[in-house]
Each structure stands twice: as C-alpha cells, then as structure tokens.
Amino acid sequence: MAVDFRCEKCGKLLSVDAPAGTSLKCPHCKAKLVVPAGLASLPKPKIAGRPGQRGDGEPDEGEGGEGEEEEQRNDKLYGVLAYGMPWVISAFLHIGIFLLAMFIVFVVAAVQPKPVGIEIPDALLNTDNPGGVMNPGSGGDPNMRAAAPVKSNSKGFSKREGKVASDASGETGNIDLIGLGGGGAAGGGALAEFGLVGGGSGSGPKSGFYGSGGNAYQVVYVIDRSGSMIQTFDYLRKEMLTSIGTLKDVQDFHVIFYAMGTPVENPPKQLIAANRNNKVAAAEFLKGVTPEGQTDPVPAMQRAFQVLQGAKKTGKLIYLLSDGLFPDNALVLKTIKEQNPPGPNQAMINTYLYGERPKEAEEVMQKIATENKGRYKFVNPDE
C-alpha cells in the first residue's frame, strides 16, 4: 500500500509504495529519506489540488509540469517576502522615530523664551528718577541728583523761532555744557559725572530715556532742536548724555537733531558702537548743537530709517522727542508708516512730548508710538 508523507528537506508531498523503514531518495531534492512507520495503513490523503493537479495531489495528465512551475514561483515569492519584510518594517520604524523626534524639537522650540534681539518696551521703567543719577562718578554724595531747572515763563512751541544769545551784543553762539571740559577724555574727569567713563557691560542690551526704553541693539535719538527749546535745552542734553552713557558695548547708537531743513547728525552719520571713545565723541558733538528755527521731523525720521536699514543686529529703537506741534502732522504720520511698515523688522518708536502738551500734538505722538510698538510719555522739564 502506498504511503504518503512529505520530504523533511524540501517539503514536497511524496507517495511511496514501500514498507516502513525503507531508505530512498527524494525525487525532487535528492535528499535521503526513510519511509516513516505507521502510515502504510492510513488512507491516502485528499489534497485540494492547484490548477494542473487532481484532487489527490497528483498532476493531471499532460499538466504536471505547469503545476510544478507554479509551485516553484510561489516558493520564490515567499522567499522574497521572507527576506524583504524585515527591511520594510525597519524602514517604517526609523521613519516613525524621526517624525517623533522632529515633533519634540518643534514643541521645545515653540516654548522657548523671547530672544534678547527682539525689542521689549519699558525695560527701564518703574523709577521715580526718569533720567537716572546725573553724577554717579563724582565725589560727595553719590545719590545727589541734578539740580532742578529754573522754571521758565516760555510758552512757545516748536513753531517759534529763536537763537541763543552768547553776550549782550546779541551775537549767537553755542551753549557750553558745564562739566564737559578738556580733561574728560583721558581718565574720566568731568565726563564721569554723566556716566561716560566706560563702554558699559552686562549680559544684554538696555536703553532708557526719560524713564522709558527697551532692550534693542540699535538705538537712534531723533531730537527736536527748534528755537522754542532754548530755555531747557541744557537739561535735555544732560538727559541724553545719561542715556547714552548707560548703553552697553554690544549696542550701536546714532544721534539726529532736527529743526527745519537738513538735520544735524553725530559724525560719522551712521550707527556706531557704544564704546567709551564714541560716547566721549558724542558728548563733544552735543556741546555744539544750537537750538534754532522751526520744527520739521520728516527729514530726520527718513535719515533714522536709512541708518537702521543697514543694521546688522536685530532689535531697533527710535527715541522721538518734540516740544510741540508739527507743521504737517499728516505728512509725519505718512512718512513713518511708509518707512516703518508693520512686520518683524519694524523699529520700535518711543515718543516724548517735551515742555507743554497741546492736545493735537499729544494725539499725534501717541498715535506714532501705538502704531510702532512703542510708548508715549509727556516730559515736563520744569519738574
């Protein structure tokens, strides 16, 4: 009786008419086999045939070759899948790990604190002494503040023309800022009274002017020097010296004074590092500025934006100070809007109304500050 069993090596189904224990070779793979015991009496298994085979597993007459070829093709397919599937699974696993890592990076980056380069308004607020201590380096009481200015009866604003009289003859001359004499540039001297003994140091940029400020790396002062500023211009100069003196070495600054026509700029008419030498040079420049004429901030603001346009560092801050009405408020607002559109590169503008506060002038200065990420402040030089 025929015995049906599978080859232990190739797995092919064999049907052998031989007693149990008989040695033979597999007709497919030529492996040596032994007919297993206990199967001779079993009925021949019925195997569902593939195309080209009968129900007993034997190939149909004339079609045996086709069935065997199909089985070989299936064996090859299973081999390819067995070899390639681990690589496919590994690829999907690595892609999943990469996507998870990228998600974690984006989440961590989203919660990082705001970088120093982005200007933050009012970094130096919450003080009752907007200009700071005027003479931290001089002898005597280190907390002594600047003397209060003499009250002025002047009610004029920036439309009033005027010049500084140097003597009884009526000739005009420069206002001499007390304490900025010759010996200051060497080792402190009189310049120490205004905080200009060094370039400044610290972990990050800071700037303050009349009690409001920011942390920008580039600072431009756009200051009114019209004739109506005569009475209090010395005190404004001292405040500017104090502000410039607090700048850090990592910051750059520029000073622009405006009246009518071409503005007066601190040489070399571009941003310069806030080191000691440049601060001393700025102090000398301030000594020679004379208040005169009427007010027109448009050319000065255009210059300020031109200077900041070439800035290499992030964070831009403009201090805009005026003592009254502009000749053309609409033109001022239009110029600033065109030169400083909203966006990541927009400069912050802090505005200051100096002296008296006409409603129209205050509204314009408030609007400029609001539209340019800044703060508005009224400054009374008589207080």
Structural overview:
This protein is α/β, with parallel strands linked by helices and 383 residues long. The protein has three domains: 1-45, no CATH class; 60-112; 184-379, 3-Layer(aba) Sandwich (Rossmann fold), CATH 3.40.50. Helices cover 29% and strands 15% of the residues. The chain has seven helices and 13 strands. Strands 7, 8, 9, 10, 11, 12 and 13 form a seven-stranded mixed β-sheet that branches. Helix 3 (233-245) runs antiparallel to helix 4 (276-287), helix 5 runs parallel beside helix 6 (329-339) and helix 6 (329-339) runs parallel beside helix 7 (359-371). The protein is rod-shaped and about 130 Å long. It starts with a strand and ends with a strand. The relative contact order is 0.11. Residues 123-199 have low confidence and may be disordered.
| Radius of gyration computed on alpha carbons | 45 Å
Question: Proportion of β residues?
Answer: 5-15%
Reported for the largest beta sheet, the result is:
7 strands, mixed
Q: How widely separated are the two ends?
A: 125 Å
CATH class of the largest domain: Alpha Beta
**Which word captures the global form?**
rod-shaped
How many strand segments? 13
Mean of pLDDT: 75
Assign the structural class, choosing from mainly alpha, mainly beta, alpha/beta, alpha+beta, or little secondary structure.
alpha/beta
Number of self-contained structural domains? 3
Q: Give the uncertain stretches in residue-range form.
A: 123-199
Helix content: 25-40%
Number of helices: 7
CATH topology of the largest domain: Rossmann fold
For CATH, the homologous superfamily of the largest domain is named as von Willebrand factor, type A domain
CATH architecture of the largest domain: 3-Layer(aba) Sandwich
What letter string, H or E per element, gives the SSE order? EEEEHHEEEHEEEHHEHEHE
